[in-house]
Amino acid sequence: MATSTLDTDEQHGTTPLQDPEQAPEQGDADPPAAETPEREKRRRAPLAAKLAITFGALLMMTSGTAIIGVKSVVGNLESSIQVSRSDDLVDPEASAEPAAPTGKAFVGAFNILLLGIDTREGQEATNARSDTILILHVSQNHDQAYLMSVPRDTDVPGTDQRINGAFTNGLGSKGDWRGGLKSAAKAISKLTGGMTFEAAAVIDFGGFKTFIDALGTVPMCVEAPTKSIHHFVVKGQPRYIGGIANDHEADSYARRTGNPRFLHQPGCSEMAGWQALDYARQRYLPDDSGDYGRQRHQQQLIKAMAKKAGSVGVLTDFGKVNELISAVGKSMLLSLPQGMGVTDFLFTMKDLAGTDLVLLKTNAGTYESVMVNGEYQGEGLDKTTKDMFRAAKNDKLGNFVFLHPEVVNNEK
């Protein structure tokens, strides 16, 4: 049963499948298996980091008409995106001096903290974790940019927690992203040896569905038959089932309930938001590429979104542009210095478009386990990674990379 598929002409053609959330009620599916022990350890590289950078590019693309003075678009951009002030991002115990904002741009070297959360259907807002943690460092003269990642399972010394839980700790009873960001920034500053952050962004990748739905569909190509661990076929309709962590659990659920896993068939088609996101979320892939493959598919999705959002038919439709901006605004929180507006920040980032972006590996792209008395505590940071963060803190990454070329991620 687990290898079955929802085999319809729609799945193979250009008509997108119906959104499981909009499908008629077919009766309740059985609950998933109980929460599993620790997920399997795996290799990871910072390629998913490009999601955050490209998300900013999408913002600029959908607001590109603002460059020629369409005030309504600028106003919607400013009002749609949640903004907090970055004064509380600086850890009082940190020794590094933050960059001086002029109100319109940054002066000197600066760091931007990027947190990616991936909320799922049925997940409590107070349980969100920052499973993607990225640091963008821009050099003194703004001629070089470096992107580093902090592994989500990194052990926080002196606690029984991992770094992705710091965001959760600050959410409070209402799931306030501002509190989560403040808590995460403080913990990450300490973990990296006192780095300061002049700005930050929280991005909900699940919110991309809203963006794609505003576009209609996106063109996606599936390389090989790919079974979902998130969607199952319940009475002929794809249905999202939460709480399943891996391939084994998905197969077990399919056998127990008789509801086969949804299968993404090879080939190119127009996908609705839920289907495109589901495909891009899969890490149990036929070629065993794991997180690397998932990151590749996420990049494919981002490119598809950017291409469609940047098409003439979209950018010349001010109503559509405003709809897209509103969709983006629901999925993003920006933390900016006093006096800097959203448009100022995005134009600052746009000015960096020609800057060479260097992707840097953490722990050489491999899992660095921390064991205490034979018990797994999480992932650690090796000496080279700690030196890399120290170099970023002191704006010496150029020298560091020259001495440690092995940390540069050259994968496309």
UniProtKB/TrEMBL annotation:
<protein>
    <recommendedName>
        <fullName>Cell envelope-related transcriptional attenuator domain-containing protein</fullName>
    </recommendedName>
</protein>
<feature type="domain" description="Cell envelope-related transcriptional attenuator">
    <location>
        <begin position="129"/>
        <end position="309"/>
    </location>
</feature>
<keyword id="KW-0472">Membrane</keyword>
<dbReference type="InterPro" id="IPR050922">
    <property type="entry name" value="LytR/CpsA/Psr_CW_biosynth"/>
</dbReference>
<dbReference type="InterPro" id="IPR004474">
    <property type="entry name" value="LytR_CpsA_psr"/>
</dbReference>
<feature type="region of interest" description="Disordered">
    <location>
        <begin position="1"/>
        <end position="45"/>
    </location>
</feature>
<keyword id="KW-0812">Transmembrane</keyword>
<dbReference type="Pfam" id="PF03816">
    <property type="entry name" value="LytR_cpsA_psr"/>
</dbReference>
<keyword id="KW-1133">Transmembrane helix</keyword>
<feature type="transmembrane region" description="Helical">
    <location>
        <begin position="47"/>
        <end position="70"/>
    </location>
</feature>
<comment type="similarity">
    <text>Belongs to the LytR/CpsA/Psr (LCP) family.</text>
</comment>
